[in-house]
Structure prediction request, 562 residues.
Amino acid sequence: MRYSVRSADLIAAQELGRALGVGPTIAQVLLHRGLGAEADAREYLSAQLSGLTRPEGMADRERAADRLARAVRAGERIAVFGDYDVDGTTSAVILSGILEELGAQVAIHVGNRFDGGYGLSDAALDRVLSGTPSLLVTCDCGSSDHERIDRARAAGIDVIVVDHHLVPEQPLPAFAFLNPHRPDCMFSYKGLASAGLALSLGAAVRVALGTQLDLRNYLDLVALGTIADVAPLDGDNRRLVRAGLARVCSPQSRPGVTVLRELGRVRPGTALSAIDVSFRLTPRLNAAGRMGDPSLTLALLRAKTLLEARQIGARIEQINDERKATERRVTEEALAQVESVYGAAPKTGIVVASESFHRGVLGISAARLVERFAVPAIVIGMEAGVGHGSARAPQGFSLYDALARCASDLIRFGGHHAAAGLTLAAPRLDAFRAAFTAASQVDLSARPSPDALVDVALEPGVFDLPSATDLALLEPLGEANAEPLFLIPEARVTESKIVGGAHRKLGLRVATQQLTAFGFDMAAIPVQVGTSVRALGALRPDSWAGGDRIELRIASFEVLSG
Prediction:
């Protein structure tokens, strides 16, 4: 891996570290993030809920809350509809749960990618209408669903849209429209996922009804939805997710979350990072919807007892195993098609399609293609003359803008800059591929350098290995708050073994300090005990060893001597 080491300022790092009570290594990471002022760094490290942006500037928030409060008082039937992904499901569970606690009559629905597809489809609206509600709230969708909202209005239903996807120019015919991306929305933080918006709306309804209700019990769901949707983990999201992660790890967590921890093999009492959630928990929440029945995820998160949650969880785990096998097959076929159509090193966005591509794993496979080729990727599953596709893109490229330039070849599309979904008629595939190739040539030059930037080169007695306690202060790490990269210039190998058939685990000694290191898919790289290595990667608390031990997740390493 190519990398460059950022310049360090030891004196400034020592001074900032002393003021904050952290080591110079973590202080240097803060300096690289523009947090050299003690007050700014302290605010970042504490990330308290009390610092959340005041909600008064959010367009239509008060109007939506007043309408919901009126419905609660009058005993109206309220339908809450969430999209089928984790953010849509968690936001629907959050809002319906709050409304139920406030005394509302609520029917909760979730979309199905195989019956209607993304958003408030005609099939989804039919399911909603069967319950004869007078008020409908969409969660994580609706910004582009003008026709269905018009249809609901014609049936005498007021529609409130709670969404964070990009907003089309055409005005939305909803009773209220909560979306920070509205041009007229004065809410200054634009990064909230729908789960965070649902919590904010629930809080406003509570105020409108003049009641007391502790909403902190819903922060675990806010964290899950925000992390799963790859929303930026800065500002308000950082505060919400940090508090939510504490709830996820709590012995008093809701039964469904407790079972998720069990399925993810998270030991009791172990803290979870946002990255842990991304790899251990949210794939399981997504699995049921990917393979056919998102109502299972809904049932898990709303389970009242551990017994009920474990029964649902066992089925979800089986489905997740099926999902992993399907994803491997589709990704292998997609890779082969890319090389056949575009060659081994495509220079523009890529579009692959097949009737054998399972719709449930298209987004995962598209992400794998982006990792492999570093260009925007669209994977389309063809069924009965219609293609349903998922798109992903590298940093610096706007999928939404590119798809907007190809709109004449699409039935519909929606999403944001990094991820999107689309539908097209099979005869338009070739035209769309050509149009997307042209559209993706515009922005590819803006891609970031392939060189990895190392935050700190560790040097014993100068920049020592950080403690697990100090590392945890940087959480949550992820989108817009990237995991820092560390270089260990030289370490002695004290243990080397293959785990899981494909991965390598090392014991490393750095001067007088010991740590473990894990290399994903690195079993084939030979390394012997007693050799010296240079290693590059991310440092994380060692969840197995516990205490203040840390582990290096290896990005690359080289053997220096035998």
About this structure: The domain at 55-215 is CATH 3.90.1640.30 (inorganic pyrophosphatase (n-terminal core)). Residues 155 and 223 are 35 Å apart (CA to CA). The chain has a mean pLDDT of 93. The first strand starts at residue 3 and ends at 5.
